[in-house]
Amino acid sequence: MNKLLSTRHLLGIRELNSDDLHLIFETADNFKNLLNSKIRKVPTLRDTTIANIFFENSTRTRVSFELAEKRLSADVVNFAASGSSVSKGETLIDTVRNILSMKVDMVVMRHPVPGACVFLAKHIDVPVVNAGDGTREHPTQALLDAYSVRERLGSVQGKKVVIVGDILHSRVALSNIFCLQKLGAEVMVCGPATLLPRYIGSLGVRVETDVRKALHWADVANVLRIQLERQDIRYFPSLREYTLNFGINKAMLHDLGKKLLIMHPGPINRGVELSSDVADSEDAIILDQVENGVAIRMAVLFLLSQKSENN
Amino acid sequence: MMEPRLLLGDQQIRLILKRFAVQLMEQHPDMEALALIGLQPRGVVLSRLVYDELNQLGLPALPHYGELDITFFRDDFNRGELLVPKKNDINFSTENKQVVLIDDVLFTGRSVRSALDALLSFGRPAKVSLMVLVDRRYSRELPIAPDYTGIAVDTRVKLEQVKVSLSEKEYKVWIRETKQG
């Protein structure tokens, strides 16, 4: 088995190969095992300092990263763009160089601009973990999604996964497509035609605008939130209309006559993309995804910090 | 280069396993308070054999058995070889147990130090002792000593290695020169 990732940074799933994905999953298995035993915290990264730099709002991802770092005994500095010198006109590079001159060993960054983490990785010499960059990638989310499918269905290989919702603005969708395909799953995207990127088919995914047909085809439905904050124009007449056409409810699942795994990267808009009874049902593994997020992020941090000093 | 030299042969190791089982029985009248814990990766081969040996004594009760991975507790993270985590498997409470940690070779004592750290995260055992097949004397870097020893041997610290093979076909322990360069 490989012991190291093929990259020094985690910028996107696109840059990883399937060996990397399996290595991350196997390492995450160990951390999940620890988190469920009496050991919750291990001293592995006790001489490592990690900066969490969030230029965009986040609750789940930031808390999950912070928890992962703390469970590995790393020292953590949190930096949020609001209330910082970013609002005073400092550039990204200057902000990060200032933080690095305080001897930080790794940077976890979320930024509203696609590719911001790639730019950063070129200019600083510590590993960078992308915690979401604009509409490009959100690699740890895709990893924990695929890991949750693997956990529930035994494997990702050969499974049919439909991603429902706002594909146009979703970094989760893009990372998920790369990740699932590298693991051998079949991927479909489904949403209003206005929210499907025109050339999405060139990534080798199926495209469907009828959610019922999509669910009928799939083993797993990963349902995305409608990101009103990223939409510059109106892509559909109203949320109510979106819900009528693309919202998933219990009756719809009942009509399928088969088991379907329901996932959601959160935060859920209850009653919009998922009805409450679906979100709280046994087939929804939304909270498992959150739990697995900590183990996946511990694995990523562990593997990247091994790399950084041995190269 | 010197030829590898055999330290323990199959027969001797089988005898040692029997002796370990009897020693454990002798020192732990209450088997239910005893817990054998093998250290990943190489100690678990030995610990399984010791457990099997105890099993064959036909005791009314058997000790608890677990396997412990120390990867995340090691003190040499990023200081040399790459660490690959293994599985932890301790499905009982170590609280107030008489724990015997089992490893194949005791050398610098650093793995045992890490194991103590890892073990204490599971609870507070009443007592922890250490069982090793081979004790490489005079090479300790920490104040750690074994309680059950298969054989004690003096080796040249950097020049020699102790190799243990406990495959189903044959058990053996040998000493060989460290590959130079």
Instruction: Let me know the average pLDDT of chain A.
Output: 91
Number of strands of chain A: 9
Categorize the overall geometry of chain B.
Answer: globular
Radius of gyration of CA atoms of chain B, rounded to a whole number: 16 Å
Q: Largest sheet of chain B, order of strands side by side?
A: 3-2-4-5-6
Whole-number radius of gyration of chain A? 19 Å
SSE succession of chain A: HEHEHEHEHEHEEHEHHEHH
Q: Give, in spatial order, the strands making up the sheet with the most strands of chain A.
A: 7-6-5-8-9
Low-pLDDT parts of chain B are none
Q: What's the rounded overall pLDDT mean of chain B? A: 91
Strand segment count of chain B: 8
Helical proportion of chain A, percent range: 40-55%
Shape of chain A: globular
Largest interface: which pair? A-B, 23 and 20 residues
State the end-to-end CA separation of chain A.
19 Å
Largest sheet of chain A: 5 strands, parallel
What is the structural class of chain A?
alpha/beta
Distance between the termini of chain B: 13 Å
Uncertain regions spanning at least 5 consecutive residues of chain A:
none
Multimer state: heterodimer
- How much of the polypeptide of chain B forms β-strand, as a percent range? 25-35%
Structure, explained:
The complex is a heterodimer of chains A (311) and B (181). Chain A contains 11 helices and 9 strands. Chain A has 311 residues and is of the alpha/beta class. In chain A, the strands form 2 sheets. Chain A has a 5-stranded parallel beta sheet with strand order 7-6-5-8-9, with helices on both faces. A 4-stranded parallel beta sheet of chain A has the order 2-1-3-4, sandwiched between helices. In chain A, helix 1 packs across helix 11, helix 2 packs across helix 11 and helix 5 (139-153) packs across helix 11. Chain A is 41% helix and 14% strand. Chain A has helices spanning 18-36, 60-71, 92-100, 116-123, 139-153, 171-182, 211-217, 239-246, 250-256, 276-279, 286-310, and strands at residues 49-54, 75-80, 106-111, 128-133, 160-164, 186-190, 206-208, 220-223, 261-263. By secondary structure, chain B is α/β, with parallel strands linked by helices. In chain B, 24% of the residues lie in helices and 31% in strands. In chain B, the strands form 2 sheets. In chain B, strands 3-2-4-5-6 form a 5-stranded parallel beta sheet. A 3-stranded antiparallel beta sheet of chain B has the order 1-8-7. In chain B, a hairpin with a 4-residue loop joins strand 7 and strand 8. The longest helix of chain B has 18 residues, at 10-27. Chain B is globular. Chains A and B meet through helix 1 and helix 11 of A and loops of B.
